[in-house]
Amino acid sequence: MQFPQSLDRTQLSLFQEALFSQPVIPMPPKTLHDQWLDEREAFSEVTLKGSTGNCQHLLAPILRALSEDQDARWLTLVAPPAEQTQAWLRKVGLNRERILLLQPRGDQTSLQLACEALRLGRSHTVVSWLNPLDKASKQRLAQAARQGEAQSLNIRLG
User: Fold this and answer.
1) For residues 47 and 23, what is the distance between their CA atoms, to the nearest angstrom?
2) Which of 70, 92, 93, 157 could pair covalently with 31 via S-S, beta carbons 3.0-4.6 A apart?
3) Longest CA span, the chain
4) What is the 3-state secondary structure (H, E, C) of the chain?
5) What is the pTM of this model?
């Protein structure tokens, strides 16, 4: 049996030629924060329904990913529910060195505190638990997030 080419010579398919003819430029990995900014959305909202335990189970990986973000700024939690204690944050594996917990003082509302934290730009993401949240409040959070080049994430527990 005779082969049309020598066996010691490699033949590249058209696919391989096209693939290898283009220079490969490695892209730096995108952080969760960069992905949100690319989408041009400064405000996001997640609604969780069910038992407290189930909601916490669903919320844990979201907060863990945000606490491990490459951005050097804080992950800020504004007035989290009583279930999100320091012990719970440790138990679910959040990077406690990157989390800031804020509670409103005096006449300040959680919405005002979240907007201020966003505007300052010292946090890559500010997580709030505001319920109900009207359209004007969502717009205030989005505007404050754009000013601080941050992301606002509101968690609604139903």
Assistant:
1) 44
2) 70
3) 91
4) CCCCCCCCCCCCCHHHHHHHHCCCCCCCCCCHHHHHHHCCCCEEEEEECCCHHHHHHHHHHHHHHHHCCCCCCEEEEECCCCCCCHHHHHHCCCCHHHEEEECCCCCCCHHHHHHHHHHHCCEEEEEECCCCCCHHHHHHHHHHHHHCCCEEEEEEEC
5) 0.74
Whether 43 and 146 have beta carbons less than 8 Å apart is answered as: no
Q: Which residue type, as a one-letter code, is found at position 4?
A: P
Question: What percent of the chain clears pLDDT 70, i.e. is strictly above it?
Answer: 75
CA 155, 79, 143, 97 torsion-angle sign:
negative
Nearest to 150 by CA among 95, 64, 78, 71: 71
Lowest mean pLDDT among 18-27, 77-86, 94-103: 18-27
Among candidates 115, 124, 158, which has minimal Cα distance to 37?
124
pLDDT digits (tens, 9 = 90+) for 21-33: 444 445 455 565 5
Distance CA 127, CA 74 (A): 11
| Residue 149 · residue 120 · CB < 8 Å | no
